[in-house]
Design brief:
Length: about 280
Amino acid sequence: MNVMSLSPASYRYPNYEIRLRGKPEGNCSFMVPIKKRRDWFRISCQVARNESSRNNNDTNVSLSSRNRMEEYNTAMKRMMRNPYEYHHDLGMNYTLITDDVIVGSQPQKPEDIDHLKGEENVAYILNLQQDKDVEFWGIDLQSIVKRCRELGVRHMRRPAVDFNPDSLRSILPKAVSSLEWAVSEGKGRVYVHCTAGLGRAPAVTVAYMFWFCDMNLNAAYDALTSKRPCGPNKRSIRGATYDLAKNDSWKEPFDNLPEDAFEDVSDWERKLIKDKVRSLRGT
């Protein structure tokens, strides 16, 4: 099941809108079908107890939040060349990819950690954001990290530059190392996130599935994107695979290789990749 956790009392999806009727208070959840798709989404909402205070807060926040979202989505479409959008005002959203791994957007408040711990059995969080990403959205990261400590959730960071395929390629081995270690510990699920959960976080998860789950790149990519529509950069994953599997000085430059190079690896290459990635633990 695809899962989204949302904040407001109304939710817009392309060609679909959900509104809560009346004046509900506290937590609520419901199941909805999404038009033109056969997925069902579980929507979890936190509704303000005071209608007037909610409206005042919406007025104060909506303009600046909308401007940030428009700026971010414009950059994402230009740099990543994909049609996906991030709606920060809808709150944290995520998707269960495997039994052990969840991919999603950034937690926005300490209460999001309570939700992940209590509802999804998350024991590890792998954050791929840079400091400037967090600051852009006005999120108090320290309060989130503090709540992780209080709840016994391990918070890890492997920052990568947003919309930058070369930066993503360079951090993939260490990020996958952290993810693989957390999964191997077996104490709970791993929540992998960037800002929107549409680029860096799914790329790390696809690389993990490719390198450690005996899947080729296309199978791993299709398995993830069939559950969470997004646009992880295949070329960055192929480049990182090349970097790990081929370390001879005479090797042909990656840029000279055909487009399908390193979409799969041999058994000995996969073993080499696994050994190298595991050696990065703690670095």
